[in-house]
Amino acid sequence: MIKFAKTSSALPACAIMLVVGCGKTHTQSAAPAPVQAQQPAMKPAPPTPIDKKREELGGKTWNPGWDADIEKALTPDMLSARAAHAVRSYCPRFAEEDNADKRAFWAYLFQALAGAEAGLNPTSDVHHTEPEVNKIDKVTKRPIHQEGLLQLTYEESDRYGCAFDWEKDRTLPIKDPRRTILDPATNLGCGIKIMENQIITLHKPLVESSSYWATLHPGTVSYRVFRKQMANIPKACGIGVAKPRSAVRPHEPAATAHS
Description:
single chain, mainly alpha, Lysozyme, 9 helices
């Protein structure tokens, strides 16, 4: 009877140990909570003059979601000191701004560029007949067309690694919004790659005669169209529009953003 009592009293203790052990094992095997990717701080960009005018007239306007597409696609280099040097004629306080204000400046600039290039129309398609640009696209094997918000070509998929898919697009109508080159996020993302190549890789300023976009060639009619769209630059930049020295004529003083 005594041995039986000892054996029966030991069983509950063993059972308790097993329960505690199982509890510890369960705690250790719990999967860690997934880490949420931190979104960059962003601010909406103000509207360009053409965007305001089109809203008044009931035409195509800038989609605020495109600001977010631009700001998310910006690389650290586009927020760096080298970028500040390149854009100082339009945003002299760029180096002092926080990253949210820097992203807002770029969002505004690409909105202005899209206004000057395509009138903010994401399905814009233009075929220029001037000899210097009327050539065959090396990707499509057809005459070059400038397309989308930033008037880009399929050749940029090879030159800059842009996500244009000609094999997918070739069966779709010219202005079909399903075409990858006409997708605003894809088109704008490609524009950022081109701009980064200009100001970071090649160490050239924003307004430059060798820029991909004719609207950034100083002293031209196209540049004056772009410059007019830069009349509502985010206030964090500190001043209004300042003309690059190469574009200033002796009788034509630099304008301000509110002139």
